[in-house]
Amino acid sequence: MVFPKRAKLILGIPQALFYWKQPFFWEEFFQNLGFEVVLSPKTNKEIVEMGVKIADPETCFSVKILFGHLLFLENKVDLIFIPRLKTKRMRSQNLYYKSQEVFEYCPKFFGMPDLAKILLKTKILTFTLDEKKERIEKTLEKFAKTIAKTSKNADVKKAIEKAFSVTNQKEKEAEESFFQKAKSEKKKIILISHPYNLYDEYANIGIKRKIEGVGGEAIFINEIPSTSTPNLAPRLHWEFGEEIMGKINTILNYDIAGAIEISAFLCGCDAVLKEFVEREFKKHRIPFLYLMIDEQTGEAGIQTRLEAFWDTLK
């Protein structure tokens, strides 16, 4: 790729979809490689409307949001970063799957760079992460050497190490937050969804704030450490599903009042995952609420369903 000739290139990163898989990772990584990083703003009505206008009817709500973020960055930066995510290797020995087992990302993660190149005039910076073929650290090292201002191996490795260090610290803080919330005397509600739904307050209609408003303690599934759980049959195909089931097995050891799963309209992965998640909570007699969100979802409807659900809790 031929870059514009300037001292510091401006790289745009959309705060949507892939960004929330590892928040803070990519901005730390690129800043240490010599880029000026610009993040799109938090999702708002304008961004959603822009994304909806260019999306086809079969596009899931989460991708519509990403489209809006991409359009916001258009013409404001030199490059827009969108990784091509294909497979993820689950490493943790605490999880119930084998530490070397590889699972796939949603197909939209794999095809998104190609869609962006069609939609946008701004150049797209991308690379392919396929841990079935190669470890992420090795892939990042090769990628960094092709785009970094420095050619020194030590500088490239330092950028990668710093990015992982920031991510590890954030994950540690999330787990510490969970253990604090677990001690709360309030009714604890587990919020289950993809991170790009959980951490996007506009997308989830402020569900965390609403739970706290009725007197509950909201716990994101991402904050929960994973433990072993019985093998699933059939196995879940997607990396997100396998990870979620391990975390659910952890939370079942705690005193929780209920669980809410949030799904973006037309998400095929969630359509399968819902059956596994709901079955697990019902088996343990824990109240379960399923919320589907899209650009038409209103505050009042969510508030009404949440209050009705709250009244059913012990």
How would you sum up this structure in a few lines?
The chain has 11 helices and 11 strands. By secondary structure, the chain is an alpha/beta fold.
Write structural notes for this entry.
This protein is α/β, with parallel strands linked by helices and 314 residues long. It has 2 domains: 10-170, no CATH class; 176-312, Response regulator (Rossmann fold). Helix content is 44%, strand content 15%. It contains 11 helices and 11 strands. It has helices at 25-31, 45-54, 61-73, 107-119, 136-147, 153-182, 195-198, 207-213, 239-251, 268-283, 299-312, and strands spanning 10-13, 36-39, 79-81, 84-89, 102-104, 123-125, 128-130, 188-192, 217-220, 258-264, 288-293. It has a 4-stranded parallel beta sheet with strand order 2-1-3-6, with helices on both faces. A 4-stranded parallel beta sheet has the order 9-8-10-11, sandwiched between helices. Helix 10 (268-283) links the parallel strand 10 and strand 11 (288-293). Helix 2 crosses helix 3 (61-73), helix 5 (136-147) crosses helix 6 (153-182) and helix 9 runs parallel beside helix 10 (268-283). The termini are far apart.
